[in-house]
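Troubleshooting log. The previous run stalled partway through. Resubmitting the same two chains, unchanged.
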Amino acid sequence: MSAGVQQSPRPFASSRKSGNRLKNNLFTGLVWTVGICTIIFIIGLLFLILEKGMPKLSIDFLLGLPDEIMEGGGIGPALFNSFYVLIISLVISIPLGMAAGIYLSEFAPDNKFIGFLRVCVEGLASVPSIIFGLFGIVLFVEAFDIGLTIIGGAVSLAFLNLPVLTRVTEEAIRAVPQEMKHASFALGGTHLQTIRRVLIPVALNGIITGICLVAGRAFGESAVIILTAGVTTSGVMWDFNLLSPGETLAVHLWYVQSEAIVPDAVEIAEKSAAVLVFIVLLINLLFRIPLWLNARKMR
Amino acid sequence: MSAPASAAATELGTSLKTSSGKTFGRRARLAFYNRTFKAICVVCAVFVCIILFSILFLMGRTGILTFEYVSPMEFFFSTEWVPENEQYGAFIFIFGTFALTALTMLIAMPISILIAVFLAEVTPPWLRAVLRPVLDLLVGIPSVVYGFLGMTLLIPLLRDVTGTTMGDGLLAAAIVLTIMVLPTISRISDDAITAVPKKYRDASYALGGTRFQTTFKVVLPAARSGIMYAGILGMARAIGETMAVVMVIGNTPQLANSLLKPTSVLTSNIVMQIANVPFDSTWNYALYLMGFLLLVISLLMIVLIRFMQRKGVQR
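Second attempt completed without errors. Output:
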């Protein structure tokens, strides 16, 4: 193509060249504008949320009880439930998911069934969360007949997290260079020692990224919680009872915004949204700081 | 990917393990730990398996019960969704889901590809080092927050701009979903573009290509399968998104023949109605069938991705 340009008479060559340069400049300009504008736009939206809600926050609001009719309700139980449900779901899903991931990457035979299983895990990792909510209803509301509860919500969330964690662990461990594994075997390490001392530490970066992704997702998840834990709280702070209804902060935000009749619903929604965004960002940052430090040390 | 290599390594591991299997002391203990650990892993894997298959099974079984009362023709092609009247035509919701996804991808794909090109090809390294983690953080923002933004900012704006009374509908939902899937699609496409070997670019520049030509004729075609993967992943997210859509779509069972008409999609209809129906009713079965439909659609997409990846590897 460029050879053609060189052979053709000069005027054409220069006009083509300048045309190309113009196109190139236009393209560069377009990419810069779209890239910067979109990213600033999305970040701006989040800042708007934080800016609207954060200054009005108070301890009373964070720990106070919600009110159906009067102004000045807080989000205490919902906030508490968010963390409670998150922790229970992580406690269930992390060991199970990691062990299954280790099995798939280290022990599983390489046959058709395991291949099928991998497709299933991968598929369920991106299945709509509402499916897990429906499954939670079948399991807890119908089969166990315990109604909408914290434990139902937490276990359904754990199921939602399981495929993601399994996949992330498997991929992180597979990405560990074979030389490291062989070196450990050559030093006489058993398979368990190799996994514990070599594979998991090296793969930890990927696994923790996966866990924080999952934790953030679980904290903000609302469809599953609405279906399995309901849209009400027990109305008491620090309620550790697993069988009480477990509305979380994300659900509360939706509920206040679209269903509630409290006069200050808008303000509650703004503040809840700010708290929600702030905590999700915090979860992501807190989990990643050790990784950054670790990466710096390794370098 | 590295299946034969890891298989060989597994063999190596087992052979070492059996060779150290003396029946006394430290070795016996290590062998015991090894076996226990493996057993635990197997049990967990089986458990995960059982959960996954029981989800598939239960959703399918409950959904299929619908067809005892409603003919498949009616369910898939009738637009009459009046459960109080025993009319269960889900066409509105199926159409809504597909229309919404298509509209979302139509807006999101070009912008995401531009952002990905921006991140991978154009930005100076320091800006890239800042923007990539920021985008990663944006992926994790809860959908309910985007729904809240759509409800409080976008819908009043749409009302002003278009002069309609409601503002809810496909357009609002598609814009909210676009903002939601943008970070996901652009980050994965960005990775795909970055993974294109540098020598391709060098060759193009050496032939006198401008950046515009290099990007569109060399880099993007080379990263095509990765970008498709990102697109399908974004699509899966858009199809399954519930709360953000519920808040801006209007939740009215009417066919969306205009962008600004309140309508309903599969996910939003399920979540709005499931709480009020008794479990053993046709209504409930129909909702489960809609859920099963979502499940099948998203599983098909994953199979599609797998298929594409295999093709990509072979080439």
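Takeaways: The CA atoms of residues 150 and 241 of chain A lie 8 Å apart. Confidence is low (pLDDT under 50) at residues 1-10 of chain A.
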